């Protein structure tokens, strides 16, 4: 487990977030995680907690897709929002994301849920909470991660240009206040969950709009296929 003074995170992110590591909440967070890990199963594995950061350096971020919690069932969480390893069943929300991409862009629906290819192209797949206790969704929502990930969103807003922020659902949409909408594109809609996808997620054309915006600003579009 990382300590407040020796966080294993990609160098550009470490520099961008340096002030956070010395704040009281971060030390409290590290102690909390050590205590939780001592007698509970925590997801994702320690080496994948900062996977989104380590796969997508801040200066390469083109798109931010914000989730809320890591998956809490065994074998699912991999440190990238909405993503699961290739041998794991595609979760319902991700199936709906794939459906929207198919309907909007005509891409085939993938047979796996590993979104690493997106992350490697500059899609920052951030969860607001970076850890969770097994089978207990929301169990770490007061752990301190919210301060760290809010700082991460603000860092992207402050340190990058012409980035697309996809905010789905009420929780994510509240984070719009952290983003300078005069410099970036903020896209908001309902969440892709089966409970809300038909209330504004389907048909939002966020993936097409993101690529159009990136092209307009001289950036390569994202290949939203993951096959």
What would you note in describing this structure?
By secondary structure, the chain is of the alpha/beta class. It has one domain: Uracil-DNA Glycosylase, subunit E (3-Layer(aba) Sandwich). Helices cover 36% and strands 11% of the residues. It contains nine helices and six strands. It has helices at residues 11-16, 18-21, 24-39, 51-55, 92-105, 116-120, 145-159, 169-173, 206-216; strands spanning 42-43, 63-67, 123-127, 132-133, 164-168, 185-189. Strands 3-2-5-6 form a four-stranded parallel β-sheet. The chain has a two-stranded antiparallel ribbon with strand order 1-4. The longest helix is centred in the first third of the chain and has 16 residues, at 24-39. The protein is globular and about 45 Å long. It starts with 10 loop residues before the first helix and ends in an 11-residue tail after the last helix. The mean pLDDT is 96.
Number of helices: 9
- Return the average pLDDT rounded to an integer: 96
The SS-based structural class is: alpha/beta
| Stretches with pLDDT under 50, minimum 5 residues | none
Straight-line N-to-C gap? 33 Å
Oligomer state equals: single chain
* Secondary structure: helix percent: 25-40%
Please give a handful of descriptors for the protein shown.
227 residues, Uracil-DNA Glycosylase, subunit E, four-stranded parallel sheet, two-stranded antiparallel ribbon, 11% strand, globular, UDG_fam1, hydrolase, Ura-DNA_Glyclase_AS, Uracil-DNA_glycosylase-like
């Amino acid at each position: 487990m990382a300590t407040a003074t020796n966080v294993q995170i990609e160098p550009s992110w470490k520099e961008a977030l340096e002030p956070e590591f010395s704040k009281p909440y971060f030390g409290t967070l590290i102690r909390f995680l050590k205590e939780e890990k001592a007698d509970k199963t925590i997801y994702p594995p320690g080496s994948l907690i900062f996977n989104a950061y380590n796969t997508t350096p801040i200066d390469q971020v083109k798109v931010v897709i914000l989730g809320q919690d890591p998956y809490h069932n065994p074998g699912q969480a991999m440190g990238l929002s909405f993503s699961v390893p290739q041998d794991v069943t595609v979760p319902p929300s991700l199936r709906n994301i794939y459906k929207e991409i198919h309907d909007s862009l005509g891409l085939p629906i993938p047979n796996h849920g590993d979104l690493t290819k997106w992350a490697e192209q500059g899609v920052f797949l951030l969860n607001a909470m970076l850890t969770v206790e097994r089978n207990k969704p929301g169990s770490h929502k007061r752990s301190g991660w919210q301060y760290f990930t809010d700082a991460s969103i603000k860092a992207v807003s402050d340190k990058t240009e012409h980035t697309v922020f996809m905010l789905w659902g009420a929780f994510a949409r509240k984070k719009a206040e952290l983003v300078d909408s005069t410099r970036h594109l903020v896209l908001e809609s309902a969440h892709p969950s089966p409970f809300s996808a038909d209330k504004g997620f389907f048909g939002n054309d966020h993936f097409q709009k993101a690529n159009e915006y990136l092209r307009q600003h001289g950036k390569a579009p994202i290949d939203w296929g993951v096959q």
